[in-house]
Amino acid sequence: MRRRHLTAIALTSSASLALAACGGGAGGPQAGGSSKLTDDKIVIGLINDQSGVYKDVSGPNSGIAIQMAIDDYKAKYGDKAVAKTIELVQADHQNKPDVANTKSQEMYDRQNADVILDVPNSAAAIAIATQAKNKKKLYINISAGSTTLSGENCNKYMFHYAYDTAMLAKVSAKGIVDAGSKSWNIVYPDYAFGQDMNKSFAAEVKANGGTVGQSIATPFPSDNFATFITKAGEGNPQVVASMHAGGDLINFVKQFNQSALKGKTQLAVGLMFITDIHALGVEQFAGTQFTDAWYWNFDDQNRQWADKFKAKANVRPSFANAANYSAAMQYLEAVQETGTDNADEIVKNLEGKKINDMFVRNGEIRKADHKVIKDAYLAKVKTKDQVKEEWDLEQIVTTVPAAQAYGEPQASCKMGG
Predict the structure, then answer these.
(1) Concatenated DSSP letters for 109-157?
(2) Which of 68, 184, 305, 375 could form a disulfide with 239 if both were Cys (CB 3.0 to 4.6 A apart)?
(3) Element (H, E) at 2
(4) 3-state secondary structure at position 399
(5) Residue 61 and residue 229: Cα distance in Å, rounded?
(6) Distance between alpha carbon 133 and the CA centroid of its chain, in Å?
(7) Would you give the end-to-end CA distance of the chain in angstroms?
(8) What is the pTM of this model?
(9) Domain 166-292+377-405, what fold?
(10) Angle between helices 319-338 and 59-77 in degrees, nearest 10
(11) In 3-state terms, what secondary structure has residue 95?
(12) Which tens digits make up the pLDDT trace of 173-220?
């Protein structure tokens, strides 16, 4: 039943969803004034993995989240909305950078997308960032974590919204080393994201007095990690750290727990989504600490939004789903404030903007590298007896202020014009 439900959503969302403005609503800086929109409409594109290892991390459910943002924008501004017609278009990049490159060109050129959102898989994200720069169209990265997106691959038309690998390492690697687990072996998927995760975590472990004996690359995607897990146990490290995500992480953890390392070596996870924990069960992860960018049951504000999301998607949202909602809403607010979908004007509006919403707390869009700086969270997976409802699987150990969670802008980022 759930598969049929998601398929129906994907088919509906992939078509253009024209939304007429409803009456009433709040006014804005451009309320009642003339606006300058290309083709008299806004087109929001979503590109992600809708069928593979990252499907549950973001996938079709991020289309639901973006549609919620569109609906909330319309409800807020009513007949005073600058964007009276908004379309949402979607594509599956299949975790292939060449497919992502082609799909983004199609969205920008043929479907007239004003902005593209999401794009898990850092190699795919880098390809789309290049298209955004060349075509002078906006791209808001949500699900790709490579620090190169706000470093050597940064550009004027791209924003790095939810997290990056350096933030993940600063929050969780430091905590684990400080607690006494100093000798590490790292296992990572051999593509842009995994390579960056390995680099970020190794640097953070060493900076806090730990050591990394081995960094072991694995194919991506993969369903067989047995030999890599055995190799990771060489030298008897205190920590074996998996830098995988989505379906690959689930496979890795399952096989780690079936190995001789279970109970002898601490498992650390570089990036984890609530959907990963739900898929495999808390017993497989219980007590594991990790960095989270957002948690649906953190407070009443998050839970209220998550309740609305669950009513539509029948699941609780991952942080990628929540971030796509927030990014879409911030983009639409920028359109409302500027009265245009001109990319250069939207960039000026977003640069340096302070944000506090259901996803971004104490946040700012840093002008120097277009990275969204926000509070982050050190989380721990609950034990089975601590779980009080199906999706309440995490305990937030501490909130890490934005200034501590993120480093300074990278010198390699040359924003340009």
Answers:
(1) HTS--SEEEE--SHHHHHHHHHHHHHHT-EEEE-S---GGGGTTT--TT
(2) 184
(3) helix 2-14
(4) strand
(5) 32
(6) 21
(7) 49
(8) 0.89
(9) Rossmann fold (3.40.50)
(10) 30
(11) coil
(12) 988 999 999 999 999 999 999 999 999 999 999 999 999 999 999 999
- Alpha helices, H only, 110-240: 122-135, 165-178, 192-207, 226-232
Could you tell me the residue ranges of all domains in the chain? 41-163+299-374, 166-292+377-405
Cα 185 from chain centroid (whole Å): 26
**Cα Rg for the chain, rounded, in angstroms?**
21
Alpha-carbon distance 364 to 362, whole Å? 7
The type of residue at 383 is T
8 is written with which tokens? 């129906």
* Structure token digits, residue 226: 């047995």
Please, what are the averages of pLDDT over each run of 10 residues along the chain (417 residues)?
40 38 40 70 98 95 98 98 98 97 98 97 96 98 96 97 96 92 98 95 97 98 97 97 95 96 94 95 92 97 98 98 98 98 98 98 97 96 95 95 94 86
Chain centroid offset of residue 269 CA: 16
Amino acid at 137: K
